Amino acid sequence: MVEYPMTFDEFATKFQTEKDCRSYLYGLRFPKGFACPKCGNGKAWTVSDVLYECSRCGRQTSVIAGTIFQDTRKPLKTWFTAIWWVTTQRNGASAMGLRRVLGLKSYKTAWAWLHKIRKAMVHPGRVRLAGRVEVDEAYVGGVEHDGGTGRGTSNKALIAVAVEIFGGNRLGRARISVAQDASRESLIGFVRDNISIGSTVTTDGWASYASLSAEGYAHESRVKRNADGEEELLPHVHMIISLLKRWLLGTHQGAVSKKHLQAYLDEFVFRFNRRKSAERGLLFYRLLECAMLVPPTTISELFGASS
What we know:
The protein has eleven helices and eight strands. The protein has helices at about 10-15, 20-30, 75-90, 95-100, 105-120, 185-195, 230-235, 235-250, 260-275, 280-290, 300-305, and strands spanning about 45, 50-55, 60, 130-140, 155-165, 170-180, 200-205, 220. Strands 6-5-4-7-8 form a five-stranded mixed beta sheet, sandwiched between helices. Strands 1-2-3 form a three-stranded antiparallel beta sheet, with no helix packed on it. It is globular, with a radius of gyration of 22 Å.
C-alpha cells in the first residue's frame, strides 16, 4: 500500500531523521525487497547505514546510488523538504524561493537542486498520449527585435506541443518538447515519441505533418483561412501554449535560457497533468518515486565543464 504524508505536519513527523528518509527511499527502490543491481540476487548484508552488499556477487550499493541524490553532501531530510516544497507550489518553484525555504547560502546551489528535481518530473516509462490529440508548434522566448513571426522566427526557441482532447472540449494530458526546427524529421519524431500509434492527430496544414497517416496515425489536417485564424483552428493546444507563456513569464519572469528550457517545460507538464490532484502528498510520493528511477545529473552537465 502506498503511504505518504497528507499535510506538512504529517511530513515533519514522518521524516524526522536521516534513517526515516533512507527507509522510505529503500521502499521506493526495492518495493519487492532487495534486488542486486548487478546480478538480481534478492539477499544482501548490511555493511553500514547506507551500504548493502549482495550475498552472491559481493556488489555494494546504496539506496541513493544511480538516483538524483547520488553523491549529495546535503542531508536527505533537506532534499525531502525541497521536494515537498516544490510539489506544494501550485504556480511553480523558483530557485530564489527554494533558497529561502532551505536557508541555502548559494543561489547556484538552489538552482542546481531545482534542475535535478525537474529531471525527476519525467517518468522514464510514462505512457504516450492517446485518442484525439491536437499538435502544433510555437515560439517562446524574448521580445522580437526583427518583427518576424511564424515558423521563420529566428531569435526564439521552437517548441512542439500536444494535448489530449476528451468529450469534445475537455483537456487531458499534455506533452511539450523543444524542437530543433519545424522540419518533418523533428515534428514527426515528436509525434512518434509522445503519441500512441492509431491515435487521431489534429494539426494545421504545415507540410511537415503530411506523412502522419503513413506513420499509422489518423491525421486530421485543418487549414486556416486567414493569418489570424491559428487559435481558432487548434484552440486546445493554443490554450496550453498560452498557459505556458504566462507561467514562464509569471513564475520565472521569462528568464529561461534555451539550454535549460526543456527542464522548465517538463515542470510545466508535470504540474499541468496533475492539475486536478487534490492530494499534494501524492505528488510528493510520485516525484520521489521517479527520483529513484532517474540517473544523477552532474554539476558540469548543468553549468558546463568549465564550472
